[in-house]
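[#protein-structures] MJ: dropping DUF2960 domain-containing protein here for a structure pass
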Amino acid sequence: MARQVTYTFKGTTKTIAFSYDKHHDLYEAVAEAEGIDLSKFLAMEQQVAMTSRKGAKAEKEFRKVEFARFGFSNIHFVRDEEPEA
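AK: finished. structure tokens for DUF2960 domain-containing protein:
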């Protein structure tokens, strides 16, 4: 079953197909869909990970803040609708 990701980019909500074969996570998938180069971001994220304690929230918070700066919000997987009884 294919996964889908929904996100809002600069005020427009979009849904894209997602596969772990192509992307490391949903953030990389939405950046590619919008044509954003993440090479500098990934290098900085790696530095944040190396300098923060294992299990610290610094890496996750860095990603969240930077993607908000890029113009993204509300990035999440689409869940299947529950069948009505």
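MJ: nice. The helical segments are 26-33, 39-51, 58-70.
AK: one more thing. The beta strands are 3-9, 12-18, 72-77.
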